[in-house]
């Protein structure tokens, strides 16, 4: 019923910037929260940043001060501005959303995007 599509990944030199986008489409009555996760080869998927419906954000310690998550509720889209990128930021970045699929709020579902590759060269 809902699809999340990420974009904006690519190859960048250390110290550079990228902005990731995550657009949600489908049967959406509301989005409780959206977040970005990343997974490097051989590593567990980890939370990078999250934003809930009232605008409260959370960040992994490793990205605090460098990454900023934002959300455009009218467009059902979340963004991740990534500055001062480091080689250790290299990973596949996945968008996640908890979505309300009915007016009453009784149908809540978690969705994942397909992932977008971010590679930071030294």
SSE arrangement:
Elements: E1 2-7, E2 10-13, E3 18-26, E4 30-39, E5 46-52, E6 57-59, E7 67-72, E8 77-82, E9 91-100, E10 108-112, E11 116-121
Parallel strand pairs: 2-11
Antiparallel strand pairs: 1-3, 3-8, 4-5, 4-9, 5-6, 7-8, 9-10, 9-11
Give short descriptive properties of this protein.
122 residues; mainly beta; 7-stranded mixed β-sheet; 4-stranded antiparallel β-sheet; 11 strands
Fold and architecture overview:
With about 120 residues, this protein is mostly beta strands. Helix content is about 0%, strand content about 60%. It contains no helices and eleven strands. Strands 2, 4, 5, 6, 9, 10 and 11 form a seven-stranded mixed beta sheet that branches. Strands 1-3-8-7 form a four-stranded antiparallel beta sheet, with no helix packed on it. It is elongated, with a radius of gyration of 14 Å. The N and C termini lie far apart (about 40 Å). The mean pLDDT is about 95.
